[in-house]
Amino acid sequence: SKFVNDKWMIKNDFLDDIQEHKPWWWNIKVQKLNLSAPFILLPEVSCQKAIEILQEKGYDQAPVVSESGVILGMVTLSNTLTSVLAGNAQFSDPVTKVIYNQYSKIGLENSLGKLSCILEDDHFAVVVQEQTQFNGNGSSLRKEVVVGVVTAMDLLTFVSRDDKR
């Protein structure tokens, strides 16, 4: 049934956007949101420290990225607290115990229309950019770098601007 859902097809790159009456912002690229550089958590950060950092920074979620730059998942305040309070994790456990991989990724070159489709189902999207990394022998590896985390509030703030450029 999800294959006959246009929004799901757009979100997963199986279908180009077909919305007929697009708002002024629909085709603007995600990079125009001017997102601030995200902070990331390394896998060894404890649940307690993650909660403190998220509260201090005023965020609900943060990406967990390995030292080598691989995105391991996302950690959220609610998921961390729920896991700890349910006894599935301890405050001293590393955040890897409470991360989850059910999040959507979007590129800087994707449209705000695609982002809006993602945000209809998800609370946030991880903005990534592909990067080529070369090692000493000249072989290359493609990896994704987290360049931001975007929420519905970020999109709403952008589209509600007065100067609609």
Strand elements, count: 5
Reading side by side through the largest sheet, how are the strands ordered? 3-4-5
What's the pLDDT, averaged over the residues?
88
Low-confidence stretches: none
The helix content is 25-40%
Number of spatially distinct domains:
1
Key words describing this protein structure:
5 helices, alpha+beta, 5 strands, 165 residues, globular, CBS-domain
What would your notes on this structure say?
The protein is an alpha+beta fold. It has one domain (27-163): CBS-domain. 27% of the residues lie in helices and 23% in strands. It is built from five helices and five strands. It has a three-stranded mixed sheet with strand order 3-4-5. A two-stranded antiparallel sheet has the order 1-2. Strand 3, helix 4 and strand 4 (124-134) form a beta-alpha-beta unit. The longest helix has 11 residues, at 47-57. The chain is globular and about 50 Å long. The chain starts with 5 loop residues before the first helix and ends in a 6-residue tail after the last helix. The model has no long low-confidence stretch (mean pLDDT 88).
List the helices and strands and how they pair.
Layout: H1 6-11, H2 47-57, E1 61-65, E2 71-76, H3 77-85, E3 104-107, H4 112-121, E4 124-134, E5 140-151, H5 152-159
Parallel strand pairs: 3-4
Antiparallel strand pairs: 1-2, 4-5
Describe this structure in a few short sentences:
This protein is of the alpha+beta class and 165 residues long. The protein has 5 helices and 5 strands.
